[in-house]
Batch of 3 targets.
Target 1
Amino acid sequence: MIESLNSGLSGLQAFQNDLNIIGNNVANSNTVGYKSSRADFSDTLSQTIIGAGYGSASAGLVGQQVGSGVATAEVQTIFSAGTLSQTGVSSDLAVSNGSGFFMVKDPTSGLSYVTQAGDFTVDSQGFLVTSNGCRVQGNPTAAGAPVTPSDIQINATGAPSSATTTVVSGYNIAANGTITVTLADGTSFVRGQVYLQNFNNPQALVNQGGNLYTVPASAGATTAGGPAGGQSGTGNIVQGSLEMSNVDLSAEFAQLITAQQGFEANSKVVTTSNEILQTITGLIR
């Protein structure tokens, strides 16, 4: 009887985790670049009540086992693409037709991250930054052969000698990440290239909050470089758009009902087990 109590308790814990994950998904349904999560369950170690040597194998009497409950085996992040929303803001970037991540770096701590939230801005120094101040990485001087990624800065550095001003009037970021800066006198030149990073095992990425992921070796990072029209599956950069959350609210609410019913069913198992235990302890009176 204690085993049924423990099994019911494990079910309560597992479905509570599921409810927590669903709640977090729903809460982030409008978060730019958010990737939904899913809980996967597995059964726990079974208790053998009759050994495998019992009886005849031909008669099907080869041992008996009773399960001891359920556990949350894994919480998977679903990296499917969210819908693209046009914003018209030059610093907003999205990835289409691929699974690439923007590479960013915290200038204070020196820590590197990746993200699919492209709601960037240009700070007072001209650096392309995330909402929490991390600088977007790429080739800071030109476009072409990959170099060691460093901070992207949108300014007049590298302008041709014929330019009569250093005032930036605008910039364009092409599908392959190439940044073309236009000065107030109409002069335009290539200032650099935004890089994308792809992974063989994105499930290994570690969520640090703020739409940022750290990259352990197990993620299997591919060589960093410009997207080059979707090379290596990284995709194309779309300027003036954002990738929204990939949360499917209809599916989340359906899963919410399932998790709620599972939680209630396991609570009934715990309640019934408790009642039977009370009956058993009452026998000694």
Note: The mean pLDDT is 89.
Target 2
Amino acid sequence: MDDVKLLIAAEIPRLRRFALSLAGDPDAADDLVQDCLERAIRKRHLWRRYGSIRGWLYRILYNVFLNQASRRRKARLEVDFEEPGVTLSEPARQEQQMICDDIVQAMRALPGEQRAALALTALEGFSYDEAAGVLRVPIGTLRSRIARGRERLRELHVEPPARVALRRVK
């Protein structure tokens, strides 16, 4: 296995976390990561070996996410019927779990551009410059998306726990 494949493999957990924040569904996130990895391995010769492979992979994943928008819209229209007689378990009662669930629901309510900007900066720790590069937008646009996303989260009355706080990264 060549060095690029090893570098790509090391980023899989982070890619999955970012994909989950974008897609909101574990199965869709896995598909997104798989499509990203397939494309990255097939086009690994295009990576310029200066700079981080992480940013290059995140850009691929985000582009795949955007390209699959029509498929996601169609999938949302499908009705998922539960099997009769199957009872759902009770939701967790732990306060931390409930806070995390609130954050996940609020993030899902954000438009994709805001969700991606917040996920890259607040969750993945990218600087504004790095995140703007991944999303291929000017830094002012990124800052605008982050500000609007934070404001929307405040409107939804989400108080993130200290370790998942939506911090400013520059």
Note: The first helix runs from residue 3 to 10.
Target 3
Amino acid sequence: MKNTPFTEKHIALGAKMAPFAGYNMPISYAGINEEHLTVRKSAGVFDVSHMGEFIIKGDKALDLIQYATTNDASKLKKGKIQYSVMPNDNGGIVDDLLVYCLEENKVYMLVVNAANIEKDWNRLNELNKNFNAELINISDKTCLLAVQGPEATRLLQKHTEMDLLNMPYYSFDKGVFAGVENVLISATGYTGAGGVEIYFEDKEGHADKIWDLILNEGIKPIGLGARDTLRLEMGYCLYGNDINDETSPIEAGLGWVTKFTKDFPSKAIFEKQKAEGVKRKLVGFELVERGISRKDYPIVNAAGEKIGVVTSGTQLPGIQKSVGMGYVQTEYSALGSEIFISIREKPVKAVVVKMPFS
């Protein structure tokens, strides 16, 4: 297993550690429920240094990104970020990712999921044969801390001249943070609680310095367990659960990042799905009977016929609702539709609801 620059910090703090995407990662410290509520009410810090970062530069950088992803990256100005997906050739999703515009038309950074770093890198290099952009994988030398919660920017602002308090959603700035130069701070969030992401190079003790400073502000360390419940509460997809190589962005409700004004792999498949409709859709649901849904549980109708599958599920802290996401046959996807989650072969009633769940 790989370690991040913060692994020893997590162990010293008593974190429950477990393998995740090939890394030894903290799952929880004080407990998932408590950590979830800490982020919703104040602020917490996540070590997400296992994520992947690729630099794409040169005269053909934008052309490569435009073909490799479904969203329209030509709209990006310097300092702006875009959510997008990388489609495969068969109507599925290689990965979902973020595109950072470092220099318009010239230099971009892609932030990809940890488990997909090698797959994404190989895919980009394969597509790049027709573009010859310069690709640099900076994943191993990049630290990434996500400080999330309504108090996050207030607590961090004193450590930088970058304007964190007024940073627009899906934008970023570069500058000095905590005396460390060339730090990139962005506002995208995977928790829906506000806050920032801090990218910096792993050298000269920077990791220890920034981690200790964040904790000295009273910001609590948070594990990946609460990160999962927080993103699910917001209805955000998790690659490997809610989207994968066999799900299309149209099925997953990601048509808004699928722009047909340009060319990309599987464009014809997605256009047909948008025009004719899809046979299944990703929905959010809330259990109305006692039970907790989990990934891969069958979804059935009132007659007991299988109509879909759960992709994510949990008992949400705070609001104490048992919720989930899953793919169902389109005729059962309307808000208010009654469905049943098969929990240990017992049908438990649920209803399709609008996300986010709270």
Note: Residues 53-139 form a domain with the Alpha-Beta Plaits fold (CATH 3.30.70.1400).
